[in-house]
Amino acid sequence: MTAIGAGPGTTLVTGATGTTGSRIAARLTAAGHPVRAAGRKAAPVAGAEPVRFDWYDPGTHAAALDGVDRVYVIPPVGDPDPAVVVLPFLRRARAAGVRRAALLSASSIPEGGPAVGQVHRALPGIFDEWAVLRPSWFMQNFTGGHLHATSIRTEGLIRTAAGTGRVGFVDADDIAAVAVHALTDDRAPDTDLVLTGPEALSYDDIATVITEVTGRPVAHRQLSYEEVRDRLAAQMPEEFAAMLAGMDRAVAEGAEDRVTDSVQRLTGRPAGSFRALVERELRLLG
């Protein structure tokens, strides 16, 4: 690990209105750290300074980076090759004085793998102080605006190609807590961190927990890889839909059947359970 020297300066949070970005901005500002909240519409977030930022418009990048010394990076969603736009921005950030970067990737994508895996591989060569957060599937996929949450509310169904495979679903609040430590601790992690909840659950288990907590019947409907791919392709680029469906297939084969202690090690407290998340966000399942 390396030390950043002086105390934390201004943090640029990309995707600041999103699931993890909004939580990170809120935690940082609550702790007294100056935050620049970047988004396409420069919307105010948790007392942070809003700034317009578009990955595909380099003209928005200079203002976003002005006076910043660390950055939380959420690659553009749905882009099958985000390195094309993210890596030039990160090199520009380093030249502008940014010293530390925390990148949001995924447990299913290794260093050098597809999509954000290419950004992961390049990150240590750009910054001396860095972290790659590789969370498992978000628990909030079942309570927010995700396809699973929508189908739970409207049909009482969860559709996947994951079969009986298990996933160490993780609470976005825990991801945010780890990110804040990675961005502000005296020493950067200088590694990648696979983040999970305290137990691995199948989608059948997820449906059972939601049913027990809410009193509304929810079931898991198993689909084929092709059915999931085609369903997703109606809403996003075909290549990205195929990648997501492939992740379901990997879950069915056991690729995500694991838990880690990363949340406990970085934050000093245990990761939250899925049942606790559903009890806390019950209103969102209404």
UniProtKB/TrEMBL annotation:
Superkingdom of the source species: Bacteria
Residues in NAD(P)-binding domain copies: 15-110
Any Pfam family matching the protein: NmrA
Gene3D superfamilies per UniProt: NAD(P)-binding Rossmann-like Domain, UDP-galactose 4-epimerase, domain 1
Membrane spanning stretches: none
Alphabetical list of SUPFAM superfamilies matching this protein: NAD(P)-binding Rossmann-fold domains (SSF51735)
Stretch forming the signal peptide: none
Domain NmrA-like: 133-257
Name by which UniProt lists this protein: NAD(P)H-binding protein
Organism, scientific name: Streptomyces chartreusis
Lineage: Bacteria, Bacillati, Actinomycetota, Actinomycetes, Kitasatosporales
